[in-house]
Amino acid sequence: MSMAALLFMIAGVEAQEVYNEIKAKAKATAEDVKADVVVRQISQFKVDALEYLMLKMREQMPDSTTAFLDIQAYSMDSFVNHFISSILDNKGKAEELQVETLKLYMDASYSNPLFNDTDIELSQSYYSNESCLTRFSLDTDWRKALLAIERQGSSYQ
What we know:
By secondary structure, the chain is mostly helical. The chain has helices spanning 2-31, 37-60, 66-89, 95-110, 120-123, 142-152. The longest helix is centred in the first third of the chain and has 30 residues, at 2-31. The protein is globular and about 45 Å long.
């Protein structure tokens, strides 16, 4: 029984390493004054999204697993990277297509809340900021949002 508990603890530490690695890379890029400003802003969003996720999980889901945190972190990173790829693929195309792509991602983020946070000022701080490239809700179930994009996104590329 103690061996099973030890294996569970080791698996939990390893699982959270993905969250920590994504956050560490994003934080390093966000703080790198030599990096492109847009790249830094995208990385700052990732840091903020991960910190929000951890904060809300501790408040509302204290019994959740590190594997769940890991999946959410990986999905958020994939969602943002998929978005950036879509934006780059649509560069030079009709502005309507670019706007439609942004709306698709914004909707996927907004329509898939994880915590149903009533603190709209915080959870929608990026979503409502027109000067941000990453206009996504912090209160997002990133796994569901990524799946929504993967189902719908190919029609916009």
